Amino acid sequence: MLNPPNSQPMPESMTEATVSAPTAAAVPRARLAGARVLVVGDVMLDRYWFGDVNRISPEAPVPVVHVQKQEDRLGGAANVARNAVALGAQAGLLCVVGHDEPGERIITLLDESGVVPHLERDPDLLTTIKLRVLSRQQQLLRVDFENTPAHEVLLASLARFDELLPAHDVILMSDYAKGGLTHVTKMIAKAHAAGKPVLVDPKGDDWERYRGATLITPNRAELREVVGQWKSEEDLTARVTKLRAELEFKALLLTRSEEGMTLFSDDGILHASAVAREVYDVSGAGDTVIATLAVMLGAGLSLVDAVALANRAAGIVVGKLGTATVNYDELFL
Ligand SMILES: Nc1ncnc2c1ncn2[C@@H]1O[C@H](COP(=O)(O)OP(=O)(O)OP(=O)(O)O)[C@@H](O)[C@H]1O
Ligand SMILES: [Mg+2]
């Protein structure tokens, strides 16, 4: 199952490891129900406006959309937490929202989702919202609102983290570079001191701030930004090994879209091939991957078993339109 660190170029000639995931008997529902995941990070609201276009505006050469329907979905860290709950685990969400309409909407959707909200409110914050305007299945425009939470609010969030830490088994940092994880280095150190694993979905090129994380889960572009373009699998392994040593990451899981995922740890390298039968919607697959990993580690599974299940979950979620979550039955039965 484990490939030696200096294996052949991948994916063509690398021995494809058949990663066998544990069965439902080995991972009963009750075991997942006991897993307590704390998600910390940037929440956002994904909003969709659907309408018809029948004319061009008299004001400028742009289409006029007559909006007929609005749909809202939890995004970012909230989507990650929702994925943990869908698997049957307990998830708390620590984040900052504003006193605005998108903030209220996020609170309502969280209430419906079963995620336990631990929200800091910032009256001056524009809650992150990504508004898409669509007509006939085509996206015409995306409009983003966001700014950075205030210093005091972020400090309050750090204090809240201290209170929440003892009641959780695993900590998950969902970074979308909106400022919610300003104090991530301190949070990782505190979790480490408390003996709790910390999983990080990174953003940006400064990974020093994630120092000491148990597991970091970049996609290809995110890793490339930090270690540069690799020329072969051997070169990739060398770059990742150096990075892990420098920043004290216990493990790194590279998600590689259609090429599946590769785990780098002290035990060697494990590659899991993508298992999707059909691919409809790949957005949010990364959220499902890290949520599944956190739930399984929180339930006491090994990292290798957690990766096998996360890979299976990713294969399921990319085959779905709409709901970007996977439930227990879909994963095990
Ligand atoms: N086109 C695809 N075909 C098969 N499997 C896929 C595909 N895209 C994604 N996956 C599965 O989903 C996992 C995560 O996808 P990816 O590496 O694209 O993460 P990501 O870029 O973080 O996703 P996100 O859009 O959520 O940010 C992959 O490791 C793979 O298992
Ligand atoms: Mg991602």
Automatic annotation (TrEMBL):
<dbReference type="GO" id="GO:0033786">
    <property type="term" value="F:heptose-1-phosphate adenylyltransferase activity"/>
</dbReference>
<dbReference type="InterPro" id="IPR011913">
    <property type="entry name" value="RfaE_dom_I"/>
</dbReference>
<dbReference type="Pfam" id="PF00294">
    <property type="entry name" value="PfkB"/>
</dbReference>
<protein>
    <submittedName>
        <fullName>RfaE bifunctional protein, domain I</fullName>
    </submittedName>
</protein>
<dbReference type="GO" id="GO:0005829">
    <property type="term" value="C:cytosol"/>
</dbReference>
<keyword id="KW-0418">Kinase</keyword>
<feature type="domain" description="Carbohydrate kinase PfkB">
    <location>
        <begin position="36"/>
        <end position="325"/>
    </location>
</feature>
<dbReference type="InterPro" id="IPR011611">
    <property type="entry name" value="PfkB_dom"/>
</dbReference>
<dbReference type="GO" id="GO:0033785">
    <property type="term" value="F:heptose 7-phosphate kinase activity"/>
</dbReference>
<dbReference type="InterPro" id="IPR029056">
    <property type="entry name" value="Ribokinase-like"/>
</dbReference>
<keyword id="KW-0808">Transferase</keyword>
<dbReference type="GO" id="GO:0016773">
    <property type="term" value="F:phosphotransferase activity, alcohol group as acceptor"/>
</dbReference>
